[in-house]
Amino acid sequence: KLSALVKSIITMKKRAEQIYDMKKLLVMWTEDQIQKSTPLILLMVQTKARSVFNTLKESFSDLMTQHAYS
Fold this sequence. Notes:
Layout lengths: L1 H34 L6 H27 L2
Helix pairs in contact: 1-2
């Protein structure tokens, strides 16, 4: 039971970090688009957010797999 609790806490902490990273990357991208005078269209922002999320999700999955075998 303790092992499951520890894994759960680690997973929650990593997800919180992942959300923070996603927000930070989206803000950087948004600011870059504004500096380039590129209009921020909802669909474009959603697509970028999905792309960033999937990239972070993949790296998170890799990290958790490595953690499980160590």
